[in-house]
Amino acid sequence: MQGDFRRESEYRPPRKTVQTPRVPPLPGTVGNIDYSELLSVDGEEALQRVLSSYSTMGLQATHLGLAREIVQRALRNKKVPGHKILLAYTSNLVSSGLRDTFACLAREGLIDGVVTTAGGVEEDVIKCLGDTLLGEFALDGSRLRKCGLNRVGNLLVPNDNYRSFEDFFVPVLKKLHGEQRASRWTTKTTPSEIIAEVGATLEKVAPDVCASSLIYWCYRNKIPVFSPAFTDGSMGDMIYFYNYSRKGLVVDPVPDVAHLRRVGAKGGSGGGHVTSIVLGGGLPKHHLLRNVRSDAVVYVTTGIEADGCESSCNIEDDRFNGLLSPECEVARVHGEATIVAPLLFLLPGGNDNCGN
């Protein structure tokens, strides 16, 4: 049968006219770098113009531009009463050359508190006791182990450095254990107190090189360093074996939670401003943001949202989980921190904010 007859499965309802929704307000249009202009200015001015262009370049450059604006504003306002900067980082970053940037921030009093892993403390101190070597990502792991070399990506740490660290750290435990015994165990040492004692010991044991250490400058300037997973590393092994042979040394992390919240607290009148800079993810990120209500947060991460772990959560996930307030200003840069972080801190024009 011919005509307009159609089977029911072929029927399509008439198309409806759908009104296109209005586009919400946008930050602006995509910009570019005018290289012909850069050729006519000196190096510092050229660098400043390139950095200033990031916010309108698009993709991750725009995120980096916003992150840099947040960090630079926090550094400019650091001397304003109530304005605080907190730093969280993973241990691989202090194994890298970023350690000098972190040490500069502590030396200049530009940070108020630090959250890191056990390795984030150990690797800083180990660099005062021996060199960290530059290798390659593709080196054979089994061969490195036979040669007595530990690897952090393309960084190599000789076993002898860890032996030196053991010789350094065990006397710290003996001193603190003696103080606990003298108090009849009314004193229970927190991880942040142990880390401060490590900084004090560095000043005595390695006076010629301690000025390169983040932990030393945090001790000198009374900047607390929090490491909630303090036993997850070489220090944890030494605490375990120390207690196995001597018994009674108590490390209590609970008071450090209250201490961190006090460091990140604002004044009673509600004034002040807290900026958190999170380099890497995992425990340092989560522990800082769950305990401190930040007004601005900068993330630098290589995590991908698909794996669902804490390092990879996007901004809306973190708001849902209560790590970010609805009003918090946030910039999330997808990038490796040794590349990104110096651009956040560097201030061209002869006034270096530890960008190195």
What does this structure look like?
By secondary structure, the protein is α/β, with parallel strands linked by helices. The protein has one domain: Deoxyhypusine synthase (Deoxyhypusine Synthase), CATH 3.40.910. Helix content is 45%, strand content 12%. It has 15 helices and nine strands. The chain has helices at residues 35-38, 43-53, 59-76, 91-95, 98-107, 118-129, 141-146, 159-182, 191-205, 214-220, 234-246, 254-263, 282-291, 315-320, 337-345; strands at 83-89, 113-115, 133-134, 149-152, 155-158, 225-226, 273-279, 296-301, 329-334. Strand 4 and strand 5 (155-158) form a beta hairpin. The longest helix has 24 residues, at 159-182. The protein is globular, with a radius of gyration of 25 Å. This is Putative deoxyhypusine synthase. Residues 1-13 have a biased composition (Basic and acidic residues). GO terms for molecular function: deoxyhypusine synthase activity. Belongs to the deoxyhypusine synthase family.
Residue ranges: pLDDT <50 for 5 or more in a row? Answer: none
CATH architecture descriptor name: 3-Layer(aba) Sandwich
User: What is the makeup of the main sheet?
Assistant: 6 strands, parallel
CATH fold name: Deoxyhypusine Synthase
- Which band does the percent of strand residues land in? 5-15%
- Give the class from helix and strand content and strand pairing: alpha/beta
Radius of gyration: 25 Å
Please give the share of residues in helix: 40-55%
Rough outline: globular
CATH superfamily: Deoxyhypusine synthase
Total E-strand runs: 9
Strand order of the largest sheet: 6-2-1-7-8-9
Rounded to the nearest angstrom, the distance between the terminal CA atoms is 83 Å
Biased composition (Basic and acidic residues): 1-13
Organism: Trypanosoma congolense (strain IL3000)
GO molecular function: deoxyhypusine synthase activity
Keywords: NAD
